[in-house]
Amino acid sequence: MYHCTITFILKQTFEAHKIYDIAKLIKHTTEIVSESIETQNKKTETKKEARKVHGNSDKNCDIHQVYEIYAKNHLGAKKTLKYGITSQCDFKTKEGNPRPEYQVKIFKTLPEYTNYEIFYHFLNNFVEGRIKAKALEQRYVSMYYAKHKHMPEKQLRPLPDELKK
Question: Domain-by-domain residue ranges, the chain?
Fold first, then answer.
């Protein structure tokens, strides 16, 4: 690839500047190629700097939301199925948020919820960073456990504070 590029630049330089001295032609072409390589290296560095941390990393400082998924029976009785967090990059769908929506869709297919309607709602919006969002989720799970003496049915983690001891 570089051979073709250098040949092209040599030809363009020769035609544009009518440089007949081969040493000057090579020097001029080398300068152009060097500038091109430097520009490409700067672009590569900029891309590396712009890369974000993984969404599940505790270093993720994106805005998060804490949500609750719950079920209601035909009498309107509500039971919490789980708490969760989602980052702002998940917010963009026509219907709402893909993470809790997907989980709701899965829960609706489970036989134990055939007599229930499944919903989600946000408990906290605009939480700064994953660590704070996880702490809020932890608090909700712990409060639920303190009140009901068991975890929400579909909650895998975090464990309530009482069970961590």
Answer: 2-50, 63-164
